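Q: I have three molecules that I believe assemble together. Could you output structure tokens for the complex as a whole instead of separate predictions?
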Amino acid sequence: MTSLFAQWNYFLVIILMMLGFYAVIARGNMVKKMVGLNIFQTSVFMLYISMGKVSNGTAPILTGDSSTVYSNPLPHVLILTAIVVGVATTAVGYALIIRIQESFGTIEDDEIIELMDDADAASEGPAS
Amino acid sequence: MMQHLPILQVIVPLLAAPLIALLRGREIAWLATFIVTGVTFVISLLLYHQVSESGARLVYEIGGWAAPLGIVYVIDAASALVLPIVTGIGFVVTLAARHLVTAEIDQRDHPLFFTAWVLTIAGMLGQVTTGDAFNIFVFLEISSLSAYALVAMGAGRDRRALPAAFNYLILGTVGATFYVIGLGLLYMLTGTLNLDDLAVRLADIEQTRAAYMAMAFIALGLFLKMALFPLHFWLVPAYSYAPSAVSALMAATATKVSVYVLVRLMFGVFGIGFVGISDGLGTVLLTLGIIGAFVGTLAAIVETDLKKLFAQSSIAQLGYMAIGIGIMTPAGLAAAFIHLFNHALMKGTLFLAIGVIGAQTGRATMRSIEGAGRQIPMTMTAILFGGLALIGVPLTAGFISKLYLIRALLESDLWILAGLTFVSSALALAYVWKIVEAAWLKPRPEGAPDLHETAIMWLPAWLLVIATIGFGIFASPLINGAVQAAAIFFGGQS
Amino acid sequence: MLHSETLIYALLGLPLMASLGVLVLRKWPNLRDGQAVVIGLLTAACAIEFFARGADGTSLTLLAMTPSLSISFTPEPLGLLFALVAGCLWPLATLYTIGYLRGAHEDNQTRFMFFYAIAIHAAMAIALSGNLLTLFVFYEILTFSTYPLVTHKGTEDARKAGRVYLGILVASSVVFLLFGVIGVWVIAGTLDFTAGGILAGKIDPIYVPFLLGLFAFGIGKAALMPLHRWLPAAMVAPTPVSALLHAVAVVKAGVFTVLKVAIYIFGLDFLSSTGASEWLIIVASFSILAASIVALRKTNLKARLAYSTVSQLGYIVLGAALASPLAASGAALHIATHAAGKITLFFCAGAIYVAHHLSDIKDMDGLGRRMPLTYGAFALAALSIIGVPPLGGAWSKFMLMGGALDGQHMLVLVVLMVSSLLNLVYLGEIILRGFFAPAKAGSVAEGGYAEAPWACVAPLCITALISILLFFSVDFFILNFSG
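A: Yes, here they are, computed for all three components at once.
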């Protein structure tokens, strides 16, 4: 019998996911976008980790006792990889933000778009 | 040796990347990259030869662990077709990178540039070869992360490359994460990640809402990665502000690999029998494809910056591939594969030739190519040929693409869509003509800098021009390859 | 004895040789132009020999992309007729071009001669093409090779005209014609020109009119209204280009393609049994009459002749649309008779321009007395176009009328008669003014005998005589498409 609250972990995942996604879309500040992206990714990690959990299961260590119930280790391992990827993405993202701050003097989306449009207009001018 | 080719295809560039990072001096870094891409090209040709010769699919079990426990690499008719185009373009673009990168990238950064370069190629090859769904995600991120870095390196000439790379990163990561969500749902349903195993088990389970959601998330994530309209906004800035060599590499290969992965997942895993595929996905792809074809073409017509112009045209061309897939017949899928292959050649040609101009003038705009037809005839002629192929003029590869796409549409009685597809592709004439007019019919403006070209500059683009014409004239091998590739997704071999 | 294959190579290769010769000998104008005339005569000889011998089913495949797509050449009677027209008029046009360019002191003569020869090469390839794909490729080459000729003067006007020219021709062919070609390929599985057509039984008759429409409007070179704008626009070009456009290659390639598609792709029986071409009869009739009326209102000589061409091309499209063997034979013959007539008219217009720099009909009162040869040739050619015996045009018009009677199209008969009357009015005016109107005071028409250079006059006399020849030896030119 699956009542709504028996799968509370999914609700948690969905709420986190939407929070993160909202931040990515709605925030103009690039650092906040990155934070949102991290929350978004983390929610997916939670989805995987919670699905691998078996009720009353232990950590998946072979004890030789065939009656031991243990959680599925595969999703956890996958998420280890995904975390590594996530960290790398975050690092690249922040590196880019630093470079943007250095060359544009701002990390607000709309201000940068303005600066870019100006540059576009300039390049329409006579060929240098 | 020969039986290890599937893994060598990926592992050679993957291991070479950190070694290149250790090299000092730009010539040696380029040379190492050139050799590595050459080797991968040869490997992919050997693989294609093996597969087309025997007709069998090669399965390589990593570490000797059989599927579904271990990870396998699979080369079948489809992946054998996509590998040579990725490695071939990679090889030719690397050849051109020698002067393009020298002109555009700070010398100290060359080893790092080429490291990212080789990594992104390795990531793409991994996505094509692997038989494991999660492995696809990992390779997707390998190629994407290095691509973000490559795009950002355009900042040396134009700081706008930085925000372009950042937006690319955000949307790329969102796309990849969608893919992982869908994969998680699939894993919950089936308990496996091996592509073949997934297909078998999905056929046994009921078509539940969870399965639909999995499909939708995976498709959405890949739509983002392949820049299908309306999820294409990251592509134009990313391609146009990236260094010229990077634009050429990415425009010709990156989105194509995502198209391939989409086909692999949708047809190879869910299968044409899955209701959400035959009804839902087909309609979505046809609709978005044709809208994208018009939006991209019209945007290209009003664009004055050549890189942006051809990036917009890529949106349209990806629309045609989406249409081919969306027809949901073997003929349609074959047309999509043919176009995937041919479009890589055309766009590679165009971006390499534009690179020659961009390396000299900073940005290649309609103004900067005025009267250029006399100063750099070989380069501009390469652009002309690429443009003619985009229009689909006979004797170019584009004609074969168009022919088979229209035929697939007509055979499925999609008359109106065939007409629309045809009109939108003919509209490409407008932007190609704009370039011809600027380059040949207008005089060079007073005070405009003189452009020059040497054989080493135009040769790479011309290699692809020759390929474009060659595959337009001797089209049978490609057509047969594409038909075989499409057949395996329609109850052929697997 | 030459092999048919050799003749195919000769017809395709000689014009290319001439164009290369022009490039190689560009430093020596006399040699450059001389070799073009000599090669032109050789080409004409080959074309005559080939036409007299007839097609023997020889086929030549240059490139094969896939089993059903190839670049190949298969001569058949209609194609040989077109090759004959283009081949025979080319040396004359070349001779005239030399006289005109030198007389008018045009720049860039080498470029001009080069693209002229390339255009002839494309026309020959169209004539001999063995399938629709080959035809399409060379149709486009013909468009692009004539573009530099149309814009030869390099003025803003010329460039604007060139844009209209290229825009209409390329857009119509890439949008409609190519779609039609692909459609035929999908439906029939082949693109080969086959006697009796390749579509019968493979397509639902409901779709045939649409497919025919793709060809009728895709072949912009046939100048069917409303796609005729490029032809008057191209009038800014030097007169030899007009001759090339109107008589030798371009529009003839257009109507030839229409005829060839009707006969060898659709099949006349298939068209008449499905009634798919009924609408085209109406459109072509409208084109014939409307263009004649526009021609009446033009006072610029070349513009009037241009609209006359639009109207005459309507006859040939009409012949295809009537879908009876007799009408198709008449249309094919009309390609030859109109070519001979129209090239003469344009040569005359050019001769008048070279000798006296006149282009408006109103200024030409009494000019016929100063240029009797030119005006005599003009009168002969005009009568041929109108369809008066003993000139070639009489036969083709007569056969078209017979074809209309066959198909019980009485209205078409009326259209043909009315248009003949209109021809008489707008062409007759020029002749009457030339010979009988008193010269206006102070105009160039006063004075004694003053013809253009001999290189201009000789060709126009020859082509005028050809019109007479066409009447008496018409048996030689009539093709049989029945069965």
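A: One point stands out. Residues 281-483 of chain C form one domain.
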